[in-house]
Amino acid sequence: MVIGAGVGGLAAAVRLAEAGHDVVVHERAATVGGKLGRYERDGFRFDTGPSLLTLPQVFADLGLGLDPVALDPVVRHVFPDGSVLDSSSDPAVFRERIENAFGAAAGADWARFWARAERIWAASWRSVLQQEVTPATLAALSWRVGDLAAIAPWRSLRGLGRHYLRDPRLRMLLDRYATYTGADPRRAPAALAAIPYAELAFGGWYLPGGLGVLASALLDRCAALGVRITTSSPVAGITTTAGRAAGVRLDSGEVVAADVVVSNVDAVTTYRELLPSPGRLAGLADRSLAGFVILLGVRGSTPELAHHTVFFPGNYNAEFDAVFGSPGTGVRARPASDPTIFVTRAEDPAVHPPGTEAWFILVNAARHGTDFGAVDWRRPGLAQAYADHILKRLAARGVDVRDRVLFAETRTPADLAESTAAPGGTIYGTAGGLLRPGNRGPVDGLFLVGGSTHPGGGLPMVTLSAKIVADEIGPA
Q1: Which of 127, 208, 267, 450 has the most CB atoms within 10 Å of its CB?
Q2: Is the domain of 104 the same as that of 156?
Q3: pLDDT of 367-376, one tens digit each?
Q4: How far apart are CA 447 and CA 440, in angstroms?
Q5: pTM for this one?
Q6: Helix (H, G, I), strand (E, B), or coil: what is residue 104?
Q7: What are the b/e assignments for 356-382, b being 16+ CB within 10 Å?
Q8: Which pLDDT does position 433 carry in this prediction?
Q9: C-alpha distances out from residue 33 to 29, 67, 141, 192, 238, Å
């Protein structure tokens, strides 16, 4: 039994079916894919969730028949001083681009950082990302002194950047990768340097037709393997017998028995709402990013934009202070006045009519709620006012699209919370660093997959969580 047909749930269903299990999936929404959402309007097609595919080798053995296209640049970075840096998956090319943009010293700094990032990646891949991680298994890293020194659990990503990179623009570029896990770079572990290494060493990829194609491919693969998927079928609870998961109780009241339950629901929700005896998750950080999204249909072309373009703010710390709030000063979370603006614009005729472009704009945002570290995104007029503000800020950074907009749609953290049951609309689950909730649940026979659990958020990590769980369950 799998609860939730997000990428983690579907990938787990595929692997378990391949291992000979009879797999049933219940999904609360009317469609599959979870946060890998899609939206269509007037001939435009948008990915409303992930917009970049990395580590394509993680998907290779799922039998999905994907045909990803490599991106160059992977991301175009536009800095507050107007300088531009295009990232490349060829380390030599990227170093050359850094030297051309920022000077030889910056290129040499990046090369030193890159050597460290490679060590972090190798240690993480070998010791963390492919297996279940608990405090005990992390402690075992102390027997691999080289791995422990590389991962440096005592150091922050911000600290690592300051150690290796003198140019503030390269530090800003590195800081952004903390947001890939929903974290603040000032507090995120240095181990997250594995993320830029994975993205740049193995490339950034696009799926023609949009990344929603991945959900369709997983659905087709499930159908071919005989997996039964029921949509519009919310699960109200997980049933247990003698301390072991025994099935689920649907919203309809029906109880469905199962030998094993795999939850692709957010770990916090699984523990607190689905189990008959609500459990606690120790050591979790409540400070996790959400995102504010604008979907634009745009007339004409914008050649200065790459497939992915990031516009950095003048004060990155101020953005994180706004998004997470400042408990020490008593300042609540709020929409950032000068946020980092991430624009995705695919040159793919399948996603927009001729003579137009489909833009996906994402900015870091506080989660939805009414407490100190959240914003009430349902407040009347807020979403529209903030969308207008973001387009104004984008114009100030040299890309004024306001007179070319055919339509604009907003997606707030409140919308994501409603559509996917992600607490507060957080994108990557709880930002718990290396110690996210484990893949084994608090009762026997219950396993967790998805971005809220180990090894973390993002399409490849979610897919790895499914492999970890399927390997733990084993063949039928």
Answers
A1: 450
A2: yes
A3: 999 988 899 9
A4: 5
A5: 0.93
A6: helix
A7: bbbbbbbbbbbbbbeeebbbebeeeeb
A8: 53
A9: 9, 19, 35, 26, 22
